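Hi W.,

Here's what went into the run:
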Amino acid sequence: MREMPLISVEGVSKRFRFPRTAPDILTGRSPAAVHALNNVDLEVHRGETLGVVGESGCGKSTLARCLVRLLEPDEGLVRFDGQDISLLRPAERRAFNRRVQMIFQDPYSSLNPRMSVRQVLSEALSVHAMRQKADIPARITELLGLVRLPADAAGRYPHEFSGGQRQRIGIARALAVEPEVLIADELVSALDVSVQAQVINLLLDLQERLKLTVVFVAHDLRLVRHISHRVAVMYLGKVVEISPTEALFAAPRHPYSKALLDAAPELDPARRTCVAAARGELPNPLDLPAGCLFNTRCPFAFERCLAERPHLSNRGPAHLAACHLTDFGKPPPATIAAQ
Amino acid sequence: MTAPSPDRKTAGGGLKVRGLTTTFATPRGPAAVVDGINLDVAPGEIVGLVGESGSGKSITLRSIVRLVREPGKVSGQVEWQGRDLMAMSEADLRKVRGAEIAMIFQEPMTALNPVLPVRLQIEENLSAHSTLDRRARRQRALELMNIVGIPAAERRLDEYPHQFSGGMRQRVMIAIALASSPKLLLADEPTTALDVTIQDQILKLILDLRDRFGMSVVFVTHDLGVVAATCDRMAVMYAGRIVETGTVTRVFAEPHHPYTRGLLGSVPRIGAERSMLLSIEGTPPGLTDLPDGCAFHPRCSFATDRCRAERPPLESFAAGREVACFHHRTVAAMAEAA
Amino acid sequence: MSAGAVPIAPSAKRRRALPGTLVGAVIVLGASLALAFFPSLFAPYDPTAFDYNAIMQGPSWVHPFGTDNFGRNMLSRVIHAYRIDMQIAVFATTGPFVFGSIVGALVGYVGGWVEAVFGRVVDAVITFPFLVLVIAIVSVLGPGLRNMYIAVGVVDWVFYARLVSAEVRIQRRLDYADAARGMGYGHTRIIFRHLLPNAITPAVVYLMTDMALAILLGSSLGYLGLGAQPPAAEWGVLIADGKNFMTTAWWVSVFPGIAIVITGLGFSLAGDALADLLRVNR
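Here's what came out:
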């Protein structure tokens, strides 16, 4: 292991309970709960981009919200710079909020419609006392330049901007407080393809210049592959594989990761297939399968998978996967050697 | 008859669209959301209609079957198997819609009736467009559910739309669309709301149905990956017009329009990780204030004075390839060099 | 990505057409306020001056609204009543609006059991007949405008609190509220700077309706002798004055009634116009 991770997620679980219904009360049952996160372990290192990828309901957004303390885990803890973030005192908490910033998915609801760009930015600057009052206007111009919005954008309101421009405002708001970590939750998924590329380029550029650590949560494998140093694949609230990006894309070691990669449409028309990569659909998140969470869809499942839930274990340099088939997806040369 | 036999592939004339134009009256004058579209779809062919939001791709699809809400006005020619859909009476058109031509949409939840079990919704289409009796309709409904790959079809027929997941709902939508054995399927972003593994299943299903029933498909999408994975030919739309057409293989290999080139470059490629993407600056124009000349010129790095003054027509430059750009040779050469 | 800023579409800034309701509201309420502040400028006579030579006269050029049983000029009395009735409209509603909005914002933000308890309070108040409750309170405290304001305030804030809490509950789930929390902003700032401005519109619109209702209530209490006290000119009092002569001198009651209707219309136009103006662009 390298230096101490900047963020470490240790055994985090999060449930969302439904309100008790009348039948629940009558039968004395505990109310139904969605298990959004099931014992997640994860580390984020300083300066890297960690991609978190998975399909809807895999808990990736819940995880993102736990990282910035918008949600409190039911079990486990999140450490930032070695400190448990649920135990922060008010002043420390404010400092934490400044150092770890989240950027939201929906460009239409993540900005207060009644505040101009200037108000949004100067609020961030003054609450966290980033600048003297007199220096705020200059800093706002600087921030707008950083995200490539014209200086006259300051006086405008969110509805006057396109989706991509609003995401730039969201990024400027986050950068105003000079954070060390950006948590980007589906940053570009609401945007048109050509605009996505603009925002991705901006993020890459800013990360380089400002030495940011980025957690990039997305469902788009191509984007995650493009931007991340390491990738974590999530399925039903659990990290099933985590690895340096190229190792994972070259040889996924978990059957779900492989299905996910195969399902993503290839940009090369010549490499078209006719066979669907994964069968079946997500199990009901209210009623998770025993054993491995993927056993209902996994073509390789055997008895052990139905009984015992696999934990992340080593597959190579910094490469972990949670599967009982420890040889799954092992690159061919090694397989030959083993035989 | 349970399903059209594959030899239908060779029969019939397919779809021929000429000068399709849809205008909406706005407070600032009429806006052509679809502006003079020409499109041919051969029997058994899957044609992708690609564009970003506001490019008019969905309205084009709806205009083909005159499903544009007031105050939209559709004009032009849509020839379907030798008949002009634009000249047809509303009553005749209804016989074509949902029968020979079926549609599926992005959000199957809003397209399905929430208070009817899916069996009734499939049978409804059968009774409207076939002469099957009640028993045969039940039988056929079950068959359709099996064709689209819904497990435990017998039991699920009596369930309501909300009891199905997103992917299963889209399958139900497709089952309803297939009920009348359509020869043309108009698909409006049918997988955009779905997860990637489910999208993959639906795309494979559509490919399979085309092969089995010789159905033609017009596939509207913004996702170039989906186009690469399913379509034979593609038409790229920008600001209500088609700017480039060709087989998917050729367009991907050698884009001739700067917009197509930009779109393809916007998608991350393997082997170029963490490099800058080739993005298109700016945002698509509003349809009420299109720039003069080529609508793409404000975002185009190839633009010259001619582009700003004159609108390039869509012209053929090679067999089966058309482009609307004065500088397409330069663009293609650039793409080759890159 | 090449350098240079992304231009903003020139069409982004839209001008909104002036709503017709706004024009109507400004005319009616503007005139009402002018009459309320400067009644003497518009009233041809002293509203309390008796003229025994002109008792119970019908509308004429000299007395357009006629005169009452003391020969007082009804036009002047209706005009002078604007002062009291507009005052009722504003004083009876402002307190409940401000207090109710603050309570509603807090309740909607905190949620949980606080909201559940508040919901029961609302139910209790709403199921109680409003007018009966107000009359009961005024009877205990004694008649007069001040006690009427107290009685209305005890009940009325609940309606504002309910509107605002429901809206805040919606707003606090939007990403911009989470963004504010993620920035480490304090609760007070989030509630009053971010959520309340986005949640207040229904309450403001209701405020306009409520002002019209307050005038009606004030007039009702005046009519019953529990509100403004004679000889003060107040529309309810005026109507009460005329009730014994309805068959012989209809004008004594009818013109104050028309004044109530027109003012009420002004407030309801203002409500529509505000709903339009305060609509947020997304």
